[in-house]
């Protein structure tokens, strides 16, 4: 059994990391919005909810790192520098790998940004 | 791509080819000119119409500025003032900023991609006519004193108050819903065009950056516009039938509208900004005379901005009392989006530094626009901070911010684009002298008009007040702003004069006067065929890097140099590597698109005035026009299966399923449709979160009827799969039987779906719970009705001999629709039936 998926040729791999960002963002927003509206109805505390969301954040970051690693592999572990503009399949693959790697970086930072409120805000309405 | 010997044509053959092509792509003359569907005409009309609407909205802004020039002014009454600023915002956003990008894209993309046409030219025409009719309807209302007057974002309860808002709110809701149809049509067209219709060899690492941006923007439209359509439906149901979606007294909540509006409204800012920056990404390399530095970084920026822009909507709602931790999420995302936005600016600066810059009018507008945009971006970072926003919210500071962003990020680059691309339309350049005058008037006028608004805003001047007292300290700022607005308007007037002044004494110039490197400069203004032959692309800047390309294209040495069967044709290529896979026949000149748009417009206009019979008649006309359009113009079975496209290559003329552009069109349309549906379901759960008991003791649809509906719809879907299998095995009899059985099951499903709320009497005017249940049920049943029409259509096609085992595009697309529909049906009736019991 292989641990990492084989290389796939698809346009959609480009969007993996930003999609993880979107899912993480939605999870944080929806969980907090529902908890704060229904405050008192659940049998867990806000601190526990924050902890759960921090765990989800770690999962999301791990997913992005995985996507970045796959992209790095597709980019030949940095073996060739951009601009990757030759009319060949190889350059097209390198371009996809590099662009995906860049997007993974941006998504990683964006997930961290969104996670900051989880660390510093301790209640719905402090 | 393998090299093939390029063959030389005899002069007679060459001329015969040109005659054929010219005949096939001929623009109709006389009144029939308006039935043209060619991308160059549609793009030009689209652009001209959007620009006219812009000038109209600009005049409204001048009226607003005159009224505010001095304190306690009575130039406009409060009511006219409200109509003027509402219409100004609405028209600028919906009738100029978004459509102008559709116009530029429809005009430029085919030649930029090396294609003859986009895959659905009639859809573009339909979109344009929908836009034009809707736009005239919305703009015209002010001459009858009936324009919307509650601000461009239509907040309830002000906008649901019929006494205050009159018919204006209906005109806004219905007129703009109609225009949103046009935008979604454009999105479908652009996505399929960019993914499937690029010239052979134009792999995705070689796509012009404009195409990358447009691909992302079209995708954003698909997820941003449908929530507004869902909101419009709820809003109109409240205004027409008193269903209390936004009425707090009966369980509704005005905040739901704000959510739905801004889930649309914030991505929209980027939907406006990215195409304009895309124009800059074409202009900058030309005037630096070198390839862009950091192509992949631009792709990062486009995709990154596209995603992050969906996590910003609540920053328009910081003062609505949402939990602060929620606000903080959106504040964080709003700061994060500054990263990809900044990357683009740095890429442009790097390209200019690395090249040898030629100063020109397009560069002037581009650079000036970016400077303005950067200021707007920085104030954006300020208002993205919650505590600052609490101070600045709803003041002129925000007015200044949004104009810096939109005028710097969109209007200036668009004017740069007009100066840059004008030679493609007319083979002549616009005047350098007038361009410079226009730029300096616009640049200084803009800053004089809008910079003081930061200060008046910080001094507390609220948006949308029609006048203000003298001693409060806002007078000078406002007077200066008004003077600036007129200087700015003078600059715009110079641009208009430059564009419309007669130029026949000016000699025609060579193609590509700026020595640009990208493919759009191969198109010949005199010819309607787009490209003489479809080239093989080997570079990001083919005109710079492929010597002799222009001559070879013009000599018809590449693909599709002729028009054998008298049909308009272009190539379909694979998504990643642009290998040719099909020769696509596209629709030609037709009046059907105009008829369909006019009758659909009739539906919306009649609804505004509650003329029910006229609504019904127009709806039936629309249906008839669309079915005629589909029947006569799509999925046609070609006389021969294959087509010799030249250079020793032969391609199929007919593809179905995921191989065909029609299947992709359906897939993308349904992705948008699903987003609208998801927004309605968001509404359902939104009401659940805000109430302890969201049914408020009202009876629900029960469990039995909704679950019966689920069962019937799932059975109908399974039978559709059987129909597809029977057709693939070439058994038309069982296939037709399956279609009929499935249609009956669908009728049953629809009836069971409506029976729940109907038999457990749920009165939608009493409370929001029955209202939202009815809306979800009706949405699903209407989709069921469309499914039945599709099934009967396939049946008729099969009986008429227009569908077979090999030629099964219709059935494939309908089954794809069913995949989406069955998910909708299971979710709708599953949730309506089970959620009240399990929550």
UniProtKB/TrEMBL annotation, chain B:
Q: Which family does it belong to?
A: Belongs to the heme-copper respiratory oxidase family.
- Where does this protein act, in terms of pathway? Energy metabolism; oxidative phosphorylation
- Reaction(s) catalysed by this chain's protein: 4 Fe(II)-[cytochrome c] + O2 + 8 H(+)(in) = 4 Fe(III)-[cytochrome c] + 2 H2O + 4 H(+)(out)
Where is this gene product found? Cell membrane
Quote the PROSITE patterns the UniProt record gives: COX1, COX1_CUB
Q: EC number(s) for this protein?
A: 7.1.1.9
Q: How does it sit in the membrane?
A: Multi-pass membrane protein
Please report the name of this protein according to its UniProt entry. cytochrome-c oxidase
Calcium among keywords:
no
One matching Pfam family is COX1
């Amino acid at each position: 059994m292989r641990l990492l998926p084989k290389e796939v040729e698809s346009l959609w791999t480009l969007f993996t990391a930003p999609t993880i960002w979107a899912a993480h963002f939605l999870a944080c927003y929806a969980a907090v919005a529902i908890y704060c509206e229904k405050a008192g109805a659940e049998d867990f505390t806000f601190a526990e909810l924050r902890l759960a969301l921090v765990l989800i954040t770690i999962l999301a970051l791990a997913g992005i790192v995985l996507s970045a690693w796959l992209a790095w592999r597709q980019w030949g572990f940095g073996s060739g520098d951009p601009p990757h503009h030759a009319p060949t399949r190889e350059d097209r693959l390198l371009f996809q790998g590099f662009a995906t790697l860049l997007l993974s970086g941006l998504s990683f930072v964006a997930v961290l940004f969104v996670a900051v409120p989880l660390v510093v805000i301790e209640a719905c309405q402090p | 791509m393998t090299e093939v010997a390029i063959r030389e044509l005899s002069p007679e053959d060459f001329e015969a080819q040109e005659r054929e092509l010219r005949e096939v792509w001929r623009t109709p003359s006389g009144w029939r000119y308006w039935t043209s569907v060619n991308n160059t005409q549609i793009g030009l009309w689209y652009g001209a119409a959007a620009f006219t609407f812009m000038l109209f909205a600009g005049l409204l802004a001048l009226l607003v500025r005159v009224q505010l020039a001095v304190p306690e002014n009575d130039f406009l009454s409060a009511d006219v003032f409200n109509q003027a600023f509402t219409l100004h915002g609405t028209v600028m956003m919906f009738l100029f900023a978004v459509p102008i990008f559709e116009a530029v894209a429809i005009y430029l993309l085919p030649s930029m991609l090396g294609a003859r046409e986009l895959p659905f030219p009639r859809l573009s025409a339909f979109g344009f006519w929908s836009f034009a009719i809707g736009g005239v309807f919305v703009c015209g209302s002010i001459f009858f004193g009936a324009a919307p007057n509650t601000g461009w974002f239509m907040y309830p309860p002000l906008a649901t108050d019929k006494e205050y808002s009159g018919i204006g709110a209906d005109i806004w809701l219905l007129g703009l819903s109609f225009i949103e149809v046009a935008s979604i049509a454009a999105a479908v067209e652009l996505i399929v065009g960019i993914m499937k219709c690029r010239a052979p060899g134009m792999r995705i690492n070689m796509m012009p950056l404009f195409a990358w941006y447009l691909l992302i923007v079209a995708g954003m439209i698909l997820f941003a516009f449908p929530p507004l359509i869902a909101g419009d439906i709820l809003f109109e149901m409240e205004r027409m039938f008193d269903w209390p979606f936004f009425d707090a007294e009966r369980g509704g909540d005005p905040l739901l509208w704000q959510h739905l509006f801004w889930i649309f409204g914030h991505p929209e800012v980027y939907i406006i900004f990215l195409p304009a920056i895309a124009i800059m990404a074409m202009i900058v390399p030309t005037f630096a005379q070198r390839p862009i530095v950091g192509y992949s970084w631009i792709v990062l920026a486009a995709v990154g901005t596209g995603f992050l822009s969906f996590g910003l909507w609540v920053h328009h709602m910081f003062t609505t009392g949402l939990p602060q931790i929620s606000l903080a999420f959106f504040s964080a995302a709003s700061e994060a989006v500054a990263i990809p936005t900044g990357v683009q600016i740095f890429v442009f600066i790097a390209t200019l530094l690395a090249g040898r810059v030629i100063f020109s009018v397009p560069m002037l507008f581009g650079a000036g626009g970016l400077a303005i945009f950067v200021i707007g971006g920085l104030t954006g970072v300020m208002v993205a901070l919650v505590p600052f926003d609490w101070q600045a919210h709803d003041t002129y500071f925000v007015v200044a911010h949004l104009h810096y962003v939109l005028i710097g990020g969109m209007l200036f680059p668009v004017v740069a684009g007009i100066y840059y691309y004008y030679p493609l339309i007319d083979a002549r350049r616009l005047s350098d002298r007038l361009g410079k005058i226009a730029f300096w008037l616009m640049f200084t006028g803009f800053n004089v008009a809008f910079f003081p608004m930061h200060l008046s805003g910080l001094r507390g001047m609220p948006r949308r007040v029609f006048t203000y007292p003298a001693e409060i300290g806002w007078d000078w700022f406002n007077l200066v702003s008004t003077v600036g607005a007129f200087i700015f308007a003078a600059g715009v007037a110079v641009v208009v004069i430059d564009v419309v002044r007669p130029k026949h004494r000016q000699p025609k110039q060579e193609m590509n006067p700026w020595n640009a490197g990208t493919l759009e400069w191969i198109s010949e203004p005199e010819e309607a065929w787009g490209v003489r032959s479809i080239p093989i692309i080997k570079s990001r800047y083919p005109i710079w890097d492929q010597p002799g390309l222009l001559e070879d294209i013009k000599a018809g040495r590449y693909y599709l140099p002729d028009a054998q069967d008298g049909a308009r044709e272009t190539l379909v290529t694979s998504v990643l590597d642009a290998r040719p896979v099909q020769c696509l026949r596209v629709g030609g000149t037709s009046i059907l698109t105009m008829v369909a748009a006019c009758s659909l417009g009739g539906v919306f206009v009649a609804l505004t005035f509650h003329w029910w019979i006229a609504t019904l008649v127009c709806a039936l006309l629309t249906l008839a026009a669309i079915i005629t359009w589909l029947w006569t113009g799509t999925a046609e079975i070609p006389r021969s299966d294959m087509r010799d496209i030249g250079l020793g290559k032969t391609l199929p003329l007919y593809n179905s399923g995921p191989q065909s552009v029609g299947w992709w069109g359906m897939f993308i349309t349904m992705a948008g449709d699903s987003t609208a549906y998801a927004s309605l379901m968001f509404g359902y759960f939104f009401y659940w979160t805000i109430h302890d008991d969201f049914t408020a003791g009202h009876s629900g649809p029960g469990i039995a009827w909704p679950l019966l509906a689920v069962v019937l719809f799932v059975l109908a879907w399974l039978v559709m799969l059987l129909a597809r299998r029977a057709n693939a095995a070439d058994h038309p009899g069982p296939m037709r039987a399956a279609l009929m059985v499935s249609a009956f099951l669908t009728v049953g499903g629809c009836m069971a779906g409506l029976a729940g709320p109907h038999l457990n009497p749920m009165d939608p005017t009493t409370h929001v719970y029955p209202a939202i249940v009815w809306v979800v049920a009706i949405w699903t049943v209407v989709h069921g009705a469309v499914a039945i029409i599709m099934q009967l259509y396939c049946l008729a096609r099969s009986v008429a001999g227009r569908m077979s085992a090999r030629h099964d595009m219709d059935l494939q697309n309908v089954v794809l629709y069913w995949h989406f529909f069955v998910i909708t049906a299971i979710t709708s009736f599953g949730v309506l039936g089970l959620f009240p019991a399990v929550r």
